[in-house]
Amino acid sequence: MTRDDCLTLLKKKYVENGKCPKKSDFSQEEVALIKGYFGPWPHALEEAGIIPSKREERLKKSKEKHIQAKINRRNAKIKKSEVLS
């Protein structure tokens, strides 16, 4: 099964049920393939266009976490140098 087949499968199930498909709507093998291509289930639903994408939001949060970690390391280094002085 290809990536496009997985997307088609998700979209088809969405149209059939009229609601967001759950992992329980598919066989274990289908779920494994879908997650293999897209990662966590919400990412697969986003890729299929079933739910709005939160990719930009996730990237923004990740960047903010990296910046905060850098600030924390810098502050810890400053405190350490003050203690040693």
What does this structure look like?
The chain is an all-alpha fold and 85 residues long. The chain has two domains: 1-53; 55-85. The chain is 74% helix and 0% strand. The protein contains four helices and no strands. The longest helix is centred in the last third of the chain and has 30 residues, at 55-84. It starts with a helix and ends with a helix. The mean pLDDT is 93.
Give the topology.
Layout: H1 3-17, H2 28-38, H3 41-47, H4 55-84
Helix pairs in contact: 2-3
Secondary-structure element string: HHHH
**Radius of gyration using CA atoms only:** 21 Å
Give the total of domains: 2
Beta strands, count: 0
Shape: elongated
The mean pLDDT is: 93
Q: Quickly give the structural class.
A: mainly alpha
How far apart lie the N and C ends?
64 Å
Q: Please give the share of residues in helix.
A: over 70%
- Strand-residue fraction? under 5%
Number of helices: 4
Largest sheet: none
Poorly predicted tracts of residues: none
